[in-house]
Amino acid sequence: MDILTASPPAPRDLLVWQHAAASLRAGIPVALLCVLNSVGSSPGRQGFKMSVTAVSLAGSVGGGIMEHKFVEKARALLRLPEAPPEVRHQVHRREAPADRSGLICSGEQWILVLPLRPADLPLTLELQQRLRTHQPGRLRLSAAHRLQVLDPEPAAPALHLGPDWHYTEPLGFRDQVTIVGGGHVALALSRVLASLEFELTVLDDRPGLNTHLYNPFAHHKRIVHYDALEQEISPGPHHYVILMTFGYRSDLLALRRLLPLPVRYLGVMGSASKIAELLASLRAEGVPEATLARLHAPIGLAIHSRTPEEIAISVAAELIRERNTP
Predict the structure, then answer these.
(1) What's the CA gap between 126 and 134, in Å, rounded?
(2) Does residue 284 contact residue 315 with C-beta atoms inside 8 Å?
(3) How far apart are the first and last CA of the chain?
């Protein structure tokens, strides 16, 4: 990725809704595919989407033979006038008595095929705009109302299957990463995270720092005071915080402010000796061991990384492992 032409990543679904809106605007029949739920080993996870016309498509519901089959199913429905939406159960086991997908990866999925109508154009345009500008909201798909855009609320995806099925999910990025310290490793990590579906914020206390000013991958960049750092970070189960500040003293200051916050992940970059000294200082200040046990330090998988780019890959891999661990 060329850093001179890069920009903050858009949510995965933006291309799907852009394709759907352009098709409806041109009078081309288009259908939405959406994975409403997935369990076990499945090629597409909950929330994966595609838009499909007779000759083009955008997005993915997992790839392979299963996706090909649903693309063809969508195209068949588009040839029917006023075709209703369908929810199909797919079982990825050879011995399953029904709903076999042809795959043998052992999981299950429920996939929606929703032919869109010309009247859906305003909503597809609104979804496109909200995703492009990171406006909050919720997408609701249902048997009763088909397609809706709702006001935001702090809730995980909601699903009910059956004749009156409905599915609701927050718009945009589910997971947020805040990097505290905007130096060379932060820039390299931002580049890697740009492809991993995180909303990215980079904070630093140094005005004029070039690697912070010219980081093209972050959605948000701010100059802050580390002695009020907790005010910059919204706690929650989908927030990952990474400390890689200028040195030991600023890391310690940041830790004092952030350790009480209930975030999914809090990690510090540094050598083993630096981390040992940080922990010793915090213990001497009376920080409980249970609180320190939440800290990931040093961050990154042990792959003998040396360069900023190698460190970034090791940290990103640790975030992926954390995010995908139930």
Answers:
(1) 12
(2) no
(3) 32
Residue type, 95: E
The residue among 212, 177, 180, 182 whose CA lies nearest residue 195 is 177
The order of strands in the sheet holding 138-142 is: 146-150, 138-142, 166-170, 158-160
Tokens 């661990």 sit at which residue?
Answer: 325
Give CA–CA dist 40/36, Å, rounded. Answer: 14
Q: Looking at residue 104, what is its pLDDT?
A: 53
Strands 138-142 and 146-150, sheet pairing: antiparallel
Q: Does 19 score more than 60 pLDDT?
A: yes
What is d(CA 185, CA 104) in angstroms, rounded to the nearest whole number?
Answer: 41
Cα 245 off chain centre by: 25
Sign of CA dihedral 248, 250, 256, 258: negative
pLDDT of residue 162: 84
Question: What residue type is 141 in one-letter code?
Answer: L
